[in-house]
Amino acid sequence: MVNTERTGSVPGRNTPNPPPRAAQPRSRSRSEVPRRLIDQTFNRNDLYALRSAVGAHVTQVADERTAEDVVLIVHELCSNAVRHGGGSGRLQVWVAGGALHCEISDSGPGFAQPGLVGQALPAPSLPGGRGLWIARKMSDLRIVSDDSGTTVTATIALR
Amino acid sequence: MVATTPVDRLAPGDHACLTYSDTEERLDILAAFITAARARGDRTVCFSEKADELRAALLDRGVDEGFAVTPVDQLWGARKAPDAETMVELLARELRAAIRDGHRGLSITADMCWASRPQANAEQLLVFESAVGGLFEGGRFTAICEYDRESFDPVTLGYAARVHPRTVAATVYHEDAVLRICRQHVPPGVRVAGELDYTRAQALTDALAEAVRLDRDIHLNLNQLAFIDAGAAAVILRTAAGLPDQRRMVVVCGEPIERTLTIAGAAEVPALRMLVRHGEH
């Protein structure tokens, strides 16, 4: 589905669940204190529960339609981590600066060209490749791949 | 557990019990039953608590006009409370009238929820279900008695299943805690309820493959589907895109599912039509 070419991961730097990068939300130059909604690890058996948790939390801060979109975006990104990112990952969801931020990190081989994946809709006859396309259409998507894994951040404006 | 019969395997003279919790499943089975009964020349009457609603729902599913829907309290005529003997007499009279009018027989569906009401003696239900048995001899009278699982206790449901020679149920392709995929009879196709993602997409692939084999146009009922992901949406698009010319797939769904199918590329597939139900649930 996506380009899973290894980008030269260094053994030892691949921690399955990287420690919380506490600076990530807090380093934002906003006076507003980020409101953390979810921070949990997941594997292939957790996707259903994860959708349920995301839906429950996000409806607290967004309308129903936005929450449905976020559930789909998070599911697609987490299932990518499960399928192509080493089988597990970590999901963090927080609100800051009038937007909802969903960060999915995994320790799998990343994308050789993260800027190019999911930019085109595959032909209807093809079985896969729509997950990142959908996430890009529905959110502001940032993908960072390096030796230690891949981190995808989806930002959705709150109305 | 009693073995169940798909509705298209019911025969004239069958006395079948339908216990349901999914209203989509109930309506599909009734629609298939009525369509088959009318095709063999039976007069068909549905006795229902919500007669107007049921008529509209059946017509909406494409059942042809010409079936009767009657408030269920007409079964006990002038009496104030449900009375088993009165009901059986009325049905016997209706059967004779149907045959006199040139019909092959009489097929009825009866919503049994009257028996769960406080004023109705639950024992009348027991009397009714055994006394009505005689009408089925000769194969001119066919009936589905509907039991809503929400309205009845397990003991009564167990009794209902035992007293009916047949239990009618949907043909299930896949069932687990989060997903149920069934055959839909009217209009013919597949019905999916719950949540569907790539981990279970193969079950949908298999169900749709059978529909492609059996049906001309494929009706995919996603009204009770709460979530679909890109992987499962791809199965739908791919199946529709692979249909031969002149054949279509018609998807009925709520707005969230429609949004996902659209963003996954539904517009690129000319054979795919979506009918969106607004403001349900």
UniProtKB/TrEMBL annotation, chain A:
CDD domains, per the entry: HATPase_RsbW-like
Domain Histidine kinase/HSP90-like ATPase residues, every copy: 47-155
Keywords on record: Kinase, Serine/threonine-protein kinase, Transferase
Listed InterPro entries: Anti-sigma-factor_SerPK, HATPase_C_sf, HATPase_dom
Region of interest: Disordered: 1-34
Pfam families assigned: HATPase_c_2 (PF13581)
Protein name: Histidine kinase/HSP90-like ATPase domain-containing protein
TrEMBL record, chain B:
PROSITE patterns according to UniProt: STAS
Coiled coil: none
Protein known as: STAS domain-containing protein
InterPro entries for this protein: MEDS_domain, MlaB-like_STAS, STAS_dom, STAS_dom_sf
Domain STAS: 190-281
Entry-linked Pfam families: MEDS, STAS_2
